[in-house]
Structure formats: C-alpha cells, structure tokens
Design goal:
about 300 residues; two-stranded parallel ribbon; single chain; alpha/beta; globular
C-alpha cells in the first residue's frame, strides 16, 4: 500500500515509518521545507519514501501530497502551545485534523488511522485533551474507514520524558516531584504503538474502533523515578514540591520553551493516565513490553 503520513519527522513518526517499510508499504510524508533531513531513517529502504513539502495548516498542500495514496495516517500533535508562533492546540489538533480528513474525503482515500491520546475528551480542563477530543469527533463523523489510537506516555530510545528524568537522576542531588507523586501513568513502548498503527491498515475488523494503548502495568510517578534510577544503577532522593507553590510558577514560566512543564501538562499529570489495554494487545497480537524491561535498553 501507498500510505500518506503526517508527523513522519517526529519521534513516533520515525518508528511508524520503519514499521511501514518493514511490512512492505511505501510512504508519502508531508514535510515542512527544511525538515526533510530528519527522514534519514528511510536510508535502509531506498525508493520507499516520497517527500512532499507542505503543512497540515495548508489544505491544498495536503491534497497534492495525498493524491494517489491508498490510506492516511495522521500523527501531527503538540504537547505545548506557543501562541505567538501560531502553535496552538486548536490549530495543530483540530484544524489540522479537519484538513487531513477533508483531503481524504475529496480524494476517496477511505482508510484513515488517527493518533489521539489517552484522556482525550471534549470538556476536559486540559486544553490539550479537549482539543484531542474535538479532533476525535471530526474523525468519527467523517464517513471514512477510521481507526483511532489513544496512547498513554510513550517511551523508547530518543524519548523526551524518560530521558529527561534520567538526566535529572544523573545530574541532580534530588529529583523534583510535583505534589505527592502518587498520580499514575501507564507508559507504553514505542514499538508496541508503531506495530498497532501499521497492522491496523490491513485489518478491516479495526475499522470504526478506538483503542486505548498503555503498557502492561501502571506506575505512580514516584515508582517511575525509582524504575529509571534502578535502570541507571543509582538510588535517588525525591524533592516533593507543594502544588500551591508550583501552580503560580508554572503559570508564570510556561511561555518559555526551556521550562519543562505547562499548565495543560500539569493538569493531565495530576489527573493520571491509565487504561485497560487488553483489547489492543489481543486484537493486534502484540507482546506488551514492560516499562522496566524497555528502559534498560537505552537509559544506561
């Protein structure tokens, strides 16, 4: 199959490209001019990747790139906003999804696979989750043969979250923890996520289905720090920061790119991010990779 892909230069997109090529598919990646060097991952598969310059906020460029494809995978998303640069949740989650869906409708590209997020819902106090919920509604109402995936925190070589914590464990006397640290996450391995996206393309029984995607176990934030520290071979103290102190700091600092947390991220973190992924692993016959096993492959 010839697959149209947005977000191919990103962390998850690179893994999905590898999985697409390994399964014999060709890929057409919508790439902003100047970002094509990030797609060196295609080197082991000469001739399998086509680069089309464009932008998910430019409907005409999407339609030109998607023409002649058999299916579409839409991955583009952001975890923080920079409104002065036009980088917002309504633009990159809602408007971009609408553009990709409309291009698929006009071109008759029926098969559509969508990246959402665990906790996505309209009305969420998190702007991230709210916009992801609106995007899901656009997909469900599209009339396309859609499948939606809703992953928890994704870990693997090159990730930001685990590697950031590992760096703090190595360099700081104590790891800062917002609040109690007892809020729970269900980290899922990158290769487990990529496998589902690619398999769904040829599994008609997944059409019209949404899948929550988490790892085999949930962890409190405190436990995740302990697991990462154990993988590195260190014990590390935690410095718990009171929520009453952190909220005004985050509000004041989130506009700066170097600051690691935004209010949207803090809201989602405190909410927790867990699910029952049984249907996902059974449908796609995937062996779930435990967090403790997976991180030992790359944080040392």
């Amino acid at each position: 199959m010839r697959i149209f892909l947005t977000g191919g230069t990103g962390y998850v997109g690179q893994a999905i490209l590898q999985a697409l090529f390994a399964q014999g598919h060709d890929a057409v990646c919508l790439v902003r001019p100047g970002s094509e060097q990030k797609l060196s991952i295609s080197t082991p598969y000469p001739g399998r990747l086509t680069i089309r310059h464009g932008d998910v906020l430019d409907p005409d460029s999407i339609e030109r790139a998607m023409a002649g494809c058999d299916a579409a995978i839409h991955l583009v998303g952001i975890i923080r906003e920079f409104p002065k640069r036009g980088i917002t949740f309504p633009a990159l989650h809602v408007q971009a999804t609408r553009h990709v869906v409309q291009a698929a409708q006009r071109l008759g590209v029926k098969r559509y696979v969508h990246m959402s997020a665990l906790g996505a819902r309209i009305g969420s106090p998190s702007g991230y989750s709210h916009s992801k919920g609106i995007a899901e509604a656009i997909v469900r109402d599209s009339g396309l043969d859609w499948t939606i995936f809703r992953p928890s925190v994704i870990f693997g070589p090159g990730d930001q979250f685990v590697n950031m914590l590992a760096d703090m464990i190595r360099k700081t006397p104590a790891v800062p923890v917002i609040g109690s640290g007892e809020y729970r996450l269900q980290p899922v391995a990158l290769q487990n996520v990529a496998a589902g996206f690619v398999q769904a393309l040829t599994m008609p029984e997944t059409i019209g289905r949404s899948y929550e995607v988490g790892g085999p176990s949930s962890y409190s934030y405190n436990q995740m720090i302990d697991e990462i520290a154990a993988a590195i071979g260190r014990k590390k103290a935690k410095l718990h920061m009171p929520l009453a102190l952190m909220f005004p700091i985050v509000r004041a600092m989130e506009r700066f790119a170097f600051f690691p947390v935004t209010r949207a991220q803090l809201t989602m973190l405190l909410e927790g991010n867990t699910c029952d992924p049984t249907a996902y692993y059974e449908t796609f016959a995937i062996r779930p990779i435990p967090f403790s096993e997976g991180i030992r492959q790359y944080v040392r």
